[in-house]
Design goal:
Radius of gyration: 20 Å
Shape: globular
Number of strands: 15
Strand order of the largest sheet: 3-4-5-6-7-8-9-10
Number of helices: 12
CATH superfamily of the largest domain: Dihydropteroate synthase-like
Largest sheet: 8 strands, parallel, barrel
Strand content: 15-25%
């Protein structure tokens, strides 16, 4: 049930992505990179689970030094998420097989330098060290200049995402750099489906990395991911993928197992029907955790949010539980209520407005108070 894919092939060391190559399954270390023992344990766990590629986040020189030791301790294929500091690419490229940059983050540093110059520099570094690239567009962190070009509507949001991806592809094409893939992710599988279909129609030659970011906890997180993968893979769209689940660190191998299972089901035509009311009622968005998380209690917090809202299952409310400052602001802006978790405090938001910052011990009571207000007012 997965038709032949039309994308070109990109080489990541000895792994081929795209064309008639098998669909690659990858994941990301959820630990802080500088916590060397924990991150190495994650890499080994994911490798043992069968991950084709393992991503690690890099944002500081200390992360780079940790990566150097990780590289020496494993032969796993490694991909690096450059986070907000694209200038670290030159330091990490000799140590990895693939670099991922987010177009929405390139404006943070060296603001006087053009985006084109920054992309050219990243591509040159990748070429020098025989690294592939991933252009990773995330709906929670769209480049502000790009977002400003489109109306503040669902359609405008989707257009900004797709345009960001296609324009960065054009930049890399002009540079003669072709070893790149694209990912376009959102926490809503419907947006993932629409934007990836639109991008594929414009650039069927570019391999696509699929994922529903911040899908949340099983089983809902798996259902959301399955919805997107079934609709896209069955159209020949998607060459590599990640299942993003909010699970304890020791269970991150679940992402690989679920990814393989979803591919096998779709290949065999084992589709799961989606109830017509799946999107009705309470919707909890929760990120899968990564090295950006500043307090690991957020995973437990997500579980507690689910527990204290069981009586609100029929309410049309979206709650976002986000573990970092990168995607936290954007995802919580779009939710009815959002928890953006910092090292010691949790920022409680109602839409884009901040309600207050609370300790991890006090946040559930504050959240429940805001929920009761929402339910009581009907808005």
């Amino acid at each position: 049930m997965i038709p032949p894919r039309k994308s070109r092939q990109v080489r990541v060391r000895d792994l081929l992505i795209g064309g008639d190559a098998p669909i690659a399954v990858q994941s990301m270390a959820a630990t802080r990179t500088i916590d060397l023992d924990a991150t190495l344990e994650q890499v080994r766990l994911l490798e043992a689970a069968g991950a084709d590629l393992i991503r690690i986040a890099i944002d500081t020189p200390a992360d780079v030094e940790a990566l150097r030791k990780i590289r020496a301790a494993t032969n796993a294929r490694l991909s690096i998420d450059l986070q907000e500091n694209y200038r670290l690419a030159a330091d990490v490229a000799p140590l990895v097989d693939k670099l991922r940059y987010n177009p929405g983050h390139l404006h943070h540093h060296e603001r006087s330098r053009s985006i084109q110059d920054k992309v050219a520099w990243i591509a040159d570094v990748a070429k020098q060290h025989d690294c592939a690239l991933r252009v990773g567009v995330n709906a929670g962190s769209v480049d502000p200049a790009m977002a400003a070009r489109f109306p503040a509507t669902d359609e405008g949001h989707a257009s900004a995402i797709v345009t960001s991806a296609t324009e960065h592809c054009a930049m890399l094409d002009e540079l003669g750099f072709h070893d790149f893939v694209v990912s376009i992710k959102d926490s809503d599988p419907r947006v993932v489906i629409e934007t990836n279909m639109r991008f594929h129609a414009a650039r069927p030659d570019v391999p696509l990395h699929l994922g529903v970011t911040e899908a949340g906890m099983p089983p809902d997180g798996i259902i959301k991911t399955r919805i997107a993968f079934e609709q896209l893979l069955s159209r020949g769209i998607g060459d590599t993928l990640r299942v993003s689940l909010t699970v304890p660190f020791a269970d991150k191998g679940t992402e690989i197992a679920v990814g393989r299972e979803l591919i096998a089901d779709i290949e065999a035509g084992r589709f799961r029907s989606v109830p017509p009311n799946f999107y009705d009622g309470l919707n909890i968005i929760a990120c899968p955790s990564c090295s950006r998380v500043e307090n690991e209690r957020f995973i437990e917090l997500a579980q507690e949010v689910k527990r204290i809202t069981e009586d609100l299952a029929d309410e049309d409310i979206t709650i976002a539980v986000m573990g970092c400052r990168v995607n936290g602001p954007g995802e919580t802006d779009d939710a009815d209520l959002g928890l953006w978790c910092g090292p010691k405090k949790v920022n409680l938001k109602r839409g884009p407005e901040t309600v207050g910052a609370y300790s991890y011990d006090d946040i559930l009571g504050a959240l429940r108070g805001e929920l009761d207000k929402l339910v009581g007012s009907g808005t």
